[in-house]
Amino acid sequence: MPLKSSHLVLFLILLSTQLFANPHTIQYLKKDASLHEIKQLHEDQWIDYTEPVYEGTANGIYWFRIEIPASTESHIVTIPESHITRASLYQGKDEILPLADTRYRSFSIAPSPSATTYYLRVNCRLEARIPLQIEPSMRYHRSEQYEFLSMGVYYGVVICVVFINLISFIIFGNKGYIQYLFMPIGMSINSVYKDGIFALLFGSIGLNEYIEPTLNSILAITCVFCIESYLSINRHYPRLYRIGIAFVVLSQLLNIGVLLTHGAFSLYVSTDLAILLALDTFWLSGFLLWRKTKTIESGWFSVAYGIPLFVAHGYYLSPYFGLDFMNISFMWYKVGSVFEMAIFTYAIMFQSKKIALKNQEMRQTIVDYTNQLNKLHDKPNEKEAQTLELIKRYRFTLKEVEVLQDIADGCTNKEIADKHFISQNTVKYHIRHIFEKLNVNNRKEAGNKLMHPADEPSTTTQI
Question: Which CDD domains match (predicted)?
Fold first, then answer.
């Protein structure tokens, strides 16, 4: 029994060794040389390839020596990096043609009864970030199916966000939905490029090498519309807003230089740096606004916008400067962008609801104010009716009605005289006639008689 257990443990160890063992070996070096010269190099000149090449701005010609043991199954050599389109694979003196209709530059290696050495030449015109994958054909195609499934989920989320914002704009009428609509589109366009969809649709052409700054600049422009409509940064921090706009304009000018020079690397890097500086400036203005106002909108912006921006720094800056510790997978950029889209969509819906409540309060305020105006408008009518009633009942003159109303308001004889531009004796004359017609003896009774005609007069006369 113990012997059988030891055999089982040994079998599992051997099985795991076979499953996780690397069946091929890869070495590389940076050297602009011909295939013949490369084959003559000494063994110690080659560097073991244990992780993707990460040499920052040290771009140029890289050679890879790939040794694949005897196998009855074909293999696929892939360079899963969208900006690398110039690569050639050699077996002996023969060049192996790249596969068509693939997302990245890929080659198929036929089965061989013996170990075979291949040489891969990569012309890296941009940042020296060169991942290399070699796997059996069946595993490669299965992995591609999983990749397409994950891409379908991601772009499905993007489409849902776009439709939610479009429908919300139709329902609420908030233009912020339309202005934000372009931001997920800008972010997803960059993802389409990084996922190799452009190469799959249009072929692995040289345009892929310098189209990325153009796509990134679209994101920077859409960010301008979004941040202005959502936070009104131009009103709160006009100087920071102008600095951000200046970086966006600079990135566009540099991008034109990239297109005119067919991908000059220095302009390429400068364009991406200008875009990142523009996005950093906008995020900083949003963060300062949150520090100042503590509003929910600015807080959501700082978090939702900051996470994908942090990932973008790691993804773009690390290869330019060879900072391996900042290397972040593009998958995390997608995760961050989905998080950003979800938070922003909810934040804009929250803002729309808040605006709708304010509009409702404003409408109610207008209704209340209108009612007050109507009441004020009705008062002169009541006063006019009261005047006519006094004239009809007591045979008052219009001037006597005015003096009686002043008496009811508590005005003195001098105040009444000044108000009507008459002498105080004339005022006393009017008051005497008013008392007689009302059958009252003092000013208080006259005022009460005006408000309550049924009141009885007292016995003391006071003019």
Answer: LuxR_C_like
